[in-house]
Amino acid sequence: MLRKKLIGIEDVKPSRPDFEVVGAFNPGVAVLGEETLLLVRVAERVRQEDSDLVRVPVLEDGRVGIRTFRKSDPDCDCSDPRVIRTREGTFLTSRSHFRLARSSDGEHFTVADQPTLEGEGPAEAFGIEDARITQIGADSFVTYSSASPYGIVTGICRTRDFVSFERMGRPFCPDNKDVVIFPERMGAVFPVLHRPSASAFGPLAVWLAESPDLCHFGNNRFLFGPREGYFDDKRVGAGCPPIRWGEDWLLLYHGADRGDRYALAAAVLDGRTLEVKRRSRTPLMEPEEEFEKNGFFSSVVFVTGCHPIPGGVRVFYGGADQNVCCADLSFDEIRENLKKGE
After folding, report:
1. Which among 121, 119, 122, 117 is positioned nearest to 94, based on CA atoms?
2. Under 8 Å between Cβ of 315 and 304
3. Cβ contacts of 221 within 8 Å, gap of 6 or more
4. Main-chain phi, psi angles of 122, to 5 degrees
């Protein structure tokens, strides 16, 4: 299995002079004609000019402002590079938006110089993250996570040209993420996968919902969760939109262990009931390459998009929360991996 780093932070220009790019990763994928399009999550942070200061970007009153905190303040917890916890609340140290990247061969991409889609309003104050794209007819439906002091919610928007986007609302209450839409109806509804997060009792698991129109959602039910002693014993989440696997569905998903090491795995969902028929007992891919092991958040393979290739599927993923990567998986490799779970 050949893995490649496609886009790194060195390939992306900051959107403003006082920012620096700290991550280009977790891309949503669409294929339009002969062109492969990625909506790349670009994370930027304020350039830090004092070793004791942490300056964080926040959307306030319709514009991105900057708040400043001191690492030496005993009420500031800076132990996680992704967040800072303060008396005023929890803030992300970076703010993410989406940039469009284009390619005629699926491997060499040109990245836009400015944001293609940005967070809007109070519920997206800390930015938007981790696009998944489902193509249905001429429309591409983009689901994404957004963070704010109100929690983590998912937004949905629709586009045909990846220039203009129609925002369609927020399907689930916070905290919820990893929302993935199936590419076709089953009966009168579109199945939708999601990952509720806020619970004092339940695991960080994949749930199934239904929608007649991708505006209204319901009939939520548990699908599958973490497994004690396996590579995915802390959390699981849907990766890319499921693809047909004979009469069933193949879902590529991410699983994280208690050390927050993220790997890629597969599950086969029954084509009629959507119940899990088979599931990886060992990862299909785990962090092995330098661009997966070392980055903004190390040891991460986080799949967010794929498209078919002869005899298999090309997956696009974030490596170490810093790079856009891809790998070609043959269907034979996937079958062999799934046999270990029978």
Report:
1. 119
2. no
3. 207, 208, 209
4. -60, -35
Give the three-state DSSP class for 293: helix
Query: Looking at residues 7-13, what average pLDDT do you find?
Result: 97
Greatest Cα-to-Cα distance within the chain, rounded to the nearest angstrom: 58
Three-class DSSP category at 216: coil
Burial class of residue 105 (count of CB atoms within 10 Å of its CB; 0-12, 13-18, 19+): exposed
Name the residue type at position 187: G
Q: What percent of the chain has pLDDT over 70?
A: 99
Tokens of 287: 């962090």
Give the H or E element holding residue 154. Answer: strand 151-159
Name 17's Cβ contacts closer than 8 Å, sequence gap at least 6. none
Which structural domain range is residue 248 located in?
A: 3-339
User: What's the distance, Cα to Cα, between the start and end of the chain in Å?
Assistant: 23
The two tokens of residue 54 are 């942490």
Among residues 93, 169, 95, 98, the alpha carbon closest in space to that of 130 is found at: 98
DSSP single-letter state for residue 183: S
Q: Which residues pair with 320 in a beta bridge?
A: none
pLDDT digits (tens, 9 = 90+) for 50-107: 888 889 998 887 888 898 999 899 999 988 878 899 988 888 899 999 999 999 998 8
Half-sphere exposure of 17 (CA within 13 A, CB side): 0
Return the closest-CA partner of residue 90 out of 114, 69, 113, 117: 69
Nearest CA to 243 out of 29, 39, 33 is that of 29
Domain count, the chain: 1
Contact 68, 84 (CB under 8 A): no
Q: Look at residue 7 and tell me whether its pLDDT is greater than 60.
A: yes
> How open is the CA angle 198-190-269, to the nearest 5 degrees?
75
- Write the CATH number for 75: 2.115.10.20
